[in-house]
Amino acid sequence: MKRYEFFNHTADIGIRVFGSSLAALFENAGLALFDIITDISKVRDCEIRQIHVSRESVDELLVEWLSRLLYLHATELLLGNSFQIQTITEQRLQGEVRGEIFQENRHVIKTEVKAITYHGLAVYYEHGLWNATIVIDV
Q1: Mapping DSSP to helix (H, G, I), strand (E, B) and coil, where does residue 105 land?
Q2: Beta strand ranges found along the chain (DSSP E)
Q3: Cα gap 126→92, rounded to integer Å
Q4: Which is it for the CA torsion 138, 16, 89, 55, positive or negative?
Q5: Percentage of the chain with pLDDT > 70?
Q6: Rounded Cα distance, 126 and 34, in Å
Q7: Which of 44, 82, 90, 138 could form a disulfide with 58 if both were Cys (CB 3.0 to 4.6 A apart)?
Q8: By the 8 A CB rule, do 19 and 31 touch?
Q9: What pTM did the predictor assign?
Q10: CATH homologous superfamily for the domain 4-137
């Protein structure tokens, strides 16, 4: 099963994310976000950050999860390459991101991501698989 795929969107980047569970969907969304930002194969998992998020719907929860990851990248220059959701419901999650701090001699920033948008956002369960469509403002 593929974890995610990108699609063209006017001036942004669209992502379709897939997961066998809601936790896997969120983990794969984190991976897709950092795949847009950098070559994740060059990122080691020597830093860990815990993330706790609560929102009123699963759609909002996904946007907040990705926004928190983007905030860590913007404020700490953290590049994520591994994501683990320890607990999740459709309104709350506790998870972690592993990765390392950007090093100019080791990492390349492929695309600067500005924000996670609500445009075209959808999270749904269909045919035994969790799916999400997300548009990233670049």
Answers
A1: coil
A2: 4-9, 12-19, 47-54, 78-88, 92-101, 115-116, 122-126, 129-137
A3: 21
A4: positive
A5: 98
A6: 26
A7: 90
A8: no
A9: 0.92
A10: Archease domain (3.55.10.10)
